[in-house]
Amino acid sequence: MMSNTILHKADARGHANHGWLNSYHTFSFGGFYNPQSMNFGALRVLNDDTVSGGRGFGDHPHDNMEIISIPLDGDLEHEDSMGNKAIIRKGDIQAMSAGTGIYHSEKNAHENELVKFLQIWIYPNQKNVQPRYDQITLNLNDRHNRLQQILSPNADDEGVWIYQNAWFHIGKLDSGLSTTYNLKGGANNGVYAFVLSGDVAVNGQQLNTRDGFGLWDVDQIEITANSETEILLMEVPMKF
């Protein structure tokens, strides 16, 4: 099967430095607009955020969007209109279904440390659902030289769940290790690979830290780490 691909190099991303927030946008967001980079199927936002000590995002609204936060370093303090108050740390995954509407705030839980996290938005497959909050702590050892599932459409499966036919995996691979990812969602789905760190080949495409690479019309992808590598795979519907 001949695949289609799109490559987003790390240095081609949108960039906004607000002092307290240093943010890189893979897809059009805020003041960054690129008509060739609006989304990858149902994946609408992939923001790579660093927040200064004690600072954060004030109370703000969302609706009809699945919002996933993946902390990479530091501790993120969350509060929302559903009554949830939580700290999310590296190894945690947070998912919210905004549905009919929520307000939430996110801030760095510490005054003297940076917090780094990925903010990801997915278009849902159901609108106007009752808002919901989901947070879990994962065993980081379970991603060593394998792909650890961190998100799915199923509440009884591994990871958090969302209202979309999507699966996320993270792998932390030793240099020289190869592995295969088989798509789970059928012919309509594609995979967006985002390199958290290291150098890796995905279906022969050489990628480096913070590069993104999307593939669709494909049944599986081959991943080979050329250095110690951490990679996030986001399988999402291409039509929704």
Overview of this protein structure:
This is Pirin family protein. InterPro entries: Pirin (IPR012093), Pirin_N_dom (IPR003829), Quercetinase_C (IPR041602), RmlC-like_jellyroll (IPR014710), RmlC_Cupin_sf (IPR011051). The chain is mainly beta and 240 residues long. It has one domain (4-237): Jelly Rolls, CATH 2.60.120.10. The chain contains no helices and 22 strands. The protein has strands at 4-8, 14-17, 21-25, 43-51, 56-62, 66-73, 75-80, 85-89, 92-97, 102-108, 115-122, 132-137, 147-152, 160-161, 167-173, 178-182, 189-197, 200-202, 205-207, 212-216, 220-225, 229-237. The strands form four sheets. It has a seven-stranded mixed β-sheet with strand order 1-20-17-22-15-13-14, with no helix packed on it. The two termini are 22 Å apart.
Q: What is the fold's blueprint, element by element?
A:
Layout: E1 4-8, E2 14-17, E3 21-25, E4 43-51, E5 56-62, E6 66-73, E7 75-80, E8 85-89, E9 92-97, E10 102-108, E11 115-122, E12 132-137, E13 147-152, E14 160-161, E15 167-173, E16 178-182, E17 189-197, E18 200-202, E19 205-207, E20 212-216, E21 220-225, E22 229-237
Parallel strand pairs: 13-14
Antiparallel strand pairs: 1-20, 2-3, 3-4, 4-11, 5-10, 6-9, 6-11, 7-8, 7-10, 9-12, 13-15, 15-22, 16-21, 17-20, 17-22, 18-19, 18-21
